[in-house]
Write a structure and sequence with these properties.
CATH topology of the largest domain: Rna Polymerase Sigma Factor, Chain: A
Distance between the termini: 47 Å
CATH superfamily of the largest domain: RNA polymerase sigma factor, region 2, helix turn helix motif
Helix content: over 70%
Largest sheet: none
CATH class of the largest domain: Mainly Alpha
CATH architecture of the largest domain: Orthogonal Bundle
Amino acid sequence: MDDLLRLIRRTKNGDRDAADALVWKYYDEVYRFVSKQTSDGEIARDLTQEIFISLLKTIGRYDPKKGAGFRTWLYKIGTDKIIDYFRSRVTHTCETLSLDEIEPINIRDFTQEVENKELAESIRVYVNGFPPDSQKIFRLHIYGCYTFAEIAEILHMPEGSVKSKYYRLLSKIREKFND
């Protein structure tokens, strides 16, 4: 922990090597968190870069004495950036492949995989329509594997409120996608 605080302090003082070390310490973890939510490696890399740019621009505001751990603070930046991305996303892009690039597949496995991906995408789009605090709770719990207590700490909310918002959203998802 002391090493991390030293790295943060050096980064705040403009040490580029420390900033680089700080980014690489968390890069893979944040990238996995983002890629689970976007299902697109290129978008995940771009968002991960935006998250770290934002972190470096605002690191002067991070205060470990305020209770939130650095990782918690980083994930809060990450969830905000992901919500902003989905909010700004207007159209879906399609990629065309030539028939020579496509491997033959088992149609039953393919159908199941497509249905699962379509359902996951539909749920992601549906969740994007909810208030940001509900989205953050959902994303941190589902994609970040945070406990409700950890999410409460990140969002500065009572744990009961976090659970209530999560289960309310989950109930609405079940109603919408009841099949």
